[in-house]
Amino acid sequence: MLSTSDLAVARGGVTVLQGLTFALAPGQALILRGPNGSGKTTLLRSLAGLQPPAGGAFHLPPDSVAYAAHADGLKSTLTVAENLSFWSQIYGGPSIDHALTALNLTQLARRRAGELSAGQKRRLGLARLLVTGRSVWLLDEPTVSLDVASVALFADVVRAHLTKGGLAVIATHVDLGLPEATILDLDPYRARVIQSTGFDEAFA
Amino acid sequence: MKALLLRDLRLAFRSGGGFGLGLAFFFLLSVLVPLGVGPEGGTLARIAPGILWVGALLACLLSLDRIFALDFEDGSLDLLATAPIPLEAVVAIKALAHWIVTGLPLTLIAPGLAIFLNLPPAGYPWLVLSLLLGTPALSIIGAFGATLTVGLRRGGLLLSLLVLPLYVPTLIFGGEVVRRGAEGMVLATPLALLAAISLGAAALLPFAAASAIRVNLR
Amino acid sequence: MSIWEYANPKKFMQTSAWALPWAVGLTVILLVVGLVWGFFFTPDDYKQGSTVKIIYLHVPSAMMAINAWVMMLVTSLIWIVRRHHVSALAAKAAAPVGLTFTLIALVTGALWGQPMWGTWWAWDPRLTSFLILTLFYFGYMALWAAIEDPDTAADLTSILCLVGSVFALLSRYAVLFWNQGLHQGASLSLDKEENVSDVFWQPLVICIAGFILLFVTMVLLRTRTEIRARRLKALLARERVA
User: Fold this and answer.
1) Alpha helices, DSSP H only, in chain A?
2) A30 vs A172: CA distance, rounded Å
């Protein structure tokens, strides 16, 4: 359902990862591992369609991606429920109750997002995934600032998503407690030879 | 799309949203100009159309960088770009929201401020009409400019430098409508051209703006 | 052999290295001949006296001020459509040159206008249009300067140049509408009756040719500098990664 062939991605005109070939079927999760700056975020942004790949190709069903970045995209003057129902309306209006319950936010629904703790904000950001109704989740460090209980809660959410036939690509350092997920170490794919960016030919 | 419009309006009206800042600026300008120019009614009446249009334009400029910069900083723009609404529509709706919270109120309070500036009575309907037709162009052109500087940390000043030259035709035709209206002259041509700029900008600039956003998110 | 081969940076560097000395030489010859002829070997105008001779700086720089923007528009379009880096860099290189020509046109115009119209500045449509053109140049250059990533900068400035061109044209007509003005008509036109007389015309054409070549020379030189700067940046980035 998600497949890449010889994919290369670039950040700021410099290729950081190359030769990525993998495939994910419905119900599977892929965990990206690699040190800072290895290109995890760049890969996820490329898969989300925010930037063009530097080489190779990837295939995704149209309109299937939900992307969760470092930043949660929350508006601090809107309440938790308002933040969430905005995104639900953008994605065609599923009810937000399920998402609130799944991430244990029901109690906070009427609180302003600006008054939440860092971990609560993160949970709200992740709850957004549930109202998108999208099947491919691209998650960039989803567990940052989550406590142990919340990480477990989140792992359950991901697991439920997978059993419903969804799939997920997760960049993370911590152990999510998802033993069924495949782990992809990005280190072997680091671009060693800098690809010509179309300009180096000047003096090649 | 309605959800996006409602969200932007709600954000503008909640505390810290900056609603009213442009209006206050417009008000201040209309008070300061007579203080600087002198109380002589004839002089004020002659410059009133221009002052009111320049004031509206600058008041509009004040809030432009908020259109996209806030969404860029908190990550919403990334999420909107991957959402099932085309970016062109996002731009158009955000410009519309900007117009509703700045251009429209500016248009409505302009007649009140025109009293301070001694605008001849014949000019009032044309002042309102010209602002009504022209301020949408200010919002959409400004939204385009804001997409160019969205990735820059201190883009505000640069934004004015980019947007002000683009405002020239709108300002000229807008001021001309009021001037001619105040003097009781024929004004169909500048009025039509003003409307044409607004319509043309609304039809074409969202595409340029959306491609600028895509470049900035890359 | 296609014209696009010259858009390859390597090919461009080779060709421009060959062409540059010729361009410099021709520019100097044309400008010296044109300006000396114009300044010292033409009669004074019966009405304007010797002030008329500023025409040899004013008219060519005014023409090049507009042509430079047109060239930037074309190169920006080429960048957007075909993504040739040289094209984007040529647009970047042309902007300060175009701005300089615009400023020369404005200043020489003021110097000429003072004795002619009795004022340094009038809100005449042509003068106003040029003033607005400077604003567009400033905005364009400021955007280039503000953005760090060169490809992003090239993309955004190209979009600005495209949209700016439409609005510059609109401004031109708006200004015409706004004030009818006292500037004389075009100095050169195909209609013989409208033209300035022959004695002034011949050195003027040489000066215009000289200014065109001056523009080409400076753009070539500046584009070469930009390409080298880009190359330097790429090398530094490569070193950081390695």
Assistant:
1) 40-47, 80-90, 97-102, 118-132, 148-163
2) 10
Furthest C-alpha separation in chain B: 57
Q: Which two tokens stand for residue C133?
A: 């053109």
Beta bridge partners of A15: A10
B172 and C175 within 8 Å at the Cβ level: the answer is yes
Digit-coded pLDDT (tens) for B104-161: 999 999 999 999 898 998 889 999 999 999 999 999 999 999 999 998 877 888 999 9
Coil vs helix vs strand at B214 = helix
Assign residue A20 the CATH number of its domain. Answer: 3.40.50.300
Chain A residue with the nearest C-alpha to that of B86: A90
For chain B, helix, strand, coil in percent to 5 are 85, 0, 15
Q: Is A163 on the interface with C (CB under 8 A)?
A: no
Query: Using CB atoms, which chains have 3+ pairs under 8 A with C?
Result: A, B
Work out the minimum CA distance from A66 to partner chain B, whole angstroms. 7
> Are B11 and A75 spatial neighbours (Cβ–Cβ below 8 Å)?
yes
Above 0.95 for ipTM, yes or no? no
The answer to whether A92 touches B84, Cβ cutoff 8 Å, is yes
B144/C177 Cβ within 8 A:
no
DSSP H/E element including C210: helix C198-241
Sheet holding A2-11, edge to edge: A14-24, A2-11, A55-59
Q: What is the pLDDT of residues C10-46, one digit of tens each?
A: 888 888 889 999 999 999 999 999 998 888 887 776 6
Task: DSSP for A72-123, please give it.
Answer: ----TTSBHHHHHHHHHHHTT---SHHHHHHTT-GGGTTSBGGGS-HHHHHH
Q: Which of A49, A71, A86 sits opposite B82 (nearest CB)?
A: A49
B74 close contact with A: CB closer than 8 A: yes
Contact assessment for residue C139 and residue B162, using Cβ atoms and an 8 Å cutoff: yes
Amino acid of residue C89: L
Task: Give residue B214's Cα distance to chain centre.
Answer: 24
Q: How far is Cα A49 from Cα A63, in angstroms, rounded to an integer? A: 10
Among the partner residues B148, B164, B205, nearest to C156 by beta-carbon distance: B148
Out of B162, B193, B215, closest to residue C139 by CB? B162
Contacts of A135 (CB under 8 A, 6+ apart): A1, A26, A61, A64, A165, A166, A167
